[in-house]
Write a structure and sequence with these properties.
The chain has 201 residues and is α/β, with parallel strands linked by helices. It has a single domain (6-173), classed as Aconitase, domain 4. It contains seven helices and seven strands; from the N terminus they run E-H-E-H-E-H-E-H-E-E-E-H-H-H. A seven-stranded mixed sheet has the order 4-3-2-1-5-6-7.
């Protein structure tokens, strides 16, 4: 998993509330367990016109946001079903950080398991960031995970809270398996002691 330390990138605005996981990656794209290639299905049902062409009004279809790695989204992002394909699709499209006022809990946890940083800010801070992102290609933000701040060219940095354990996973680029393997010596020692104490097991 790619570590997340500091990210400076274009931020794209998505001023929609209650964007559920089916909107993020529709069910038609869930036939695979591979993590690559899902970016083509990201927001497929809300980013295209009736004839299937890219909707020019959808932010991520606009050239100024082609390289966006940060998404500024409305309240309750990632609600709906628990599909892990949602963070996979965002990452495959190049999005490494989503900022909102709130996230659905399962989606929030799935983000950390895959190297995607979800940042929670206040409604006032989101309004400020959404306005900044609406500037287009000049809407560059810096997300500093060790410092736990989001900052742009103007205004004071916006602080955010994060669980220390989840933060350590992202900074170290560790998923749950890698985190367990870091403790392999302690696990092996425990198993050896357990075998000595209970040789009949």
């Amino acid at each position: 998993m790619q570590p997340f330390v500091t990210l400076t990138a274009v931020a794209a605005p998505l001023p929609m509330i209650n964007v559920d996981t089916d909107m993020i990656i529709p069910k038609d794209y869930l036939k695979t367990i591979g993590r690559t290639g899902l970016g083509r299905g990201l927001f497929a049902e809300i980013s295209r016109t009736a004839d299937g062409a890219p909707d020019p009004d959808f932010p991520l279809n606009q050239p100024q946001y082609a390289a966006a790695e940060i998404l500024i989204a409305g309240d309750n992002f990632g609600c709906g079903s628990s599909r892990e394909h949602a963070p996979w699709a965002l990452l495959d499209r190049g999005i490494r950080c989503v900022i909102s006022t709130s996230f659905a809990d399962i989606f929030y946890q799935n983000c950390f398991k895959n190297g995607l940083l979800p940042v929670v800010v206040t409604p006032q801070e989101l309004e400020r960031l959404m306005a900044h992102a609406s500037r287009g290609a000049n809407a560059t933000l810096t997300v500093d995970l060790p410092a736990q701040t989001v900052s742009g060219a103007d205004g004071d940095p916006i602080p955010f809270s994060i669980d220390p354990g989840l933060k350590a996973m992202l900074v170290g680029g560790l998923d749950e398996i890698a985190l367990t393997l870091h403790k392999r010596e302690a696990i092996a020692a425990h198993e050896a002691r357990f075998g000595e104490l209970r040789p009949w097991v």
